[in-house]
Amino acid sequence: MSLSLGIIGLPNVGKSTLFNALLKKQAALVANYPFATIEPNVGVVDVPDERLQGLVAVVRNDFGQRLGDREVPQKVIPATVKFYDIAGLVKGAHKGEGLGNEFLGHIREVDALVHVLRDFEDDNIIRSGAVNPEEDKFVIETELILADISSLERILRNAKDEAKTRTPEAVLRVEVLTKIQEVLNQGKPARSLELSEKEQSVIRDIKLLTQKPMLYVHNVAEDRLSTLVVQNGRKDSGGEIYISAKIESEICSLPETEQKEYSTELGLEEPGLNRLIKSGYKLLNLQSFLTAGPKEVRAWTVRCEAKAPEAAGVIHTDFERGFIGADVISYSDLMSVKSFKKAKELGLIRLEGRTYTMRDGDVVEFRFNV
What does pTM read for this prediction? Predict the structure, then answer.
């Protein structure tokens, strides 16, 4: 599975600048006028994970630098995030203003939303409705709620027709959709409504915009960044983070060897883009597990609380179908001995069964038979 995030916001708040920094190249047009982005730009970005290089060293300890004419490991593959740079929404988007219907349609396809808020002053960049971050939030959230209200009317009408069959699922679906409609009519997003697992299961096919988790990214002026990051560091766990898209763009333009040094000079422990991706994982309750061998060292994305067979299925559906067990060692335990062979001799590698709950950083080899 690959996480997909849609970058949204009012025009001229820094979405495309942020997107370009993520991709480390000028992939999206950056221009000082509204709707510079019409079709969504799409880019795949590696998830930063220093553990991969640690595993490379372990594999080389066990198998050597080369096997025949091939380097060990042959490949290092990080987990990825797919970013969609979606054109600026405006007031009235739910009615089609500013090509709103088309843009809202693009948003429906992503797992979560990254709402970029203009939190800087610059008279040289046109403001297009953004007065302050809180007003910005309100405008966009209102448009998403109004769009959902419109969509839900049709969905609920069809659900009521299906409920005439009186099947328990169809009746429950109407009840859940009615609950959501009431919440939306109160001006609240659908995600504010707590639903049971059973209630969620009957509306899993419904793609409401305000059901999607939302991460707020404050695009701030360079001179405020380090102070705000320190003051609001705790918010990086999910809700809001502070980034300067301009600084991120500058960092990414430097050689990789100089990027960390420049970040440190600015008082930043790590680039804001790394924090954004990590926050996206936390927001969607995702984690990474790892596999390693002479052919490939790789990170895989799986939901938190996933059982071992589900994680095996992320690699290949046959692994889940024919799951027998999983040889598991934590990354920290493996690095303490820096060798799979030694870890096995010391009994650090455990054989886990179907009920094992995966943990972030597990290094796994699945046993299966199909």
Answer: 0.82
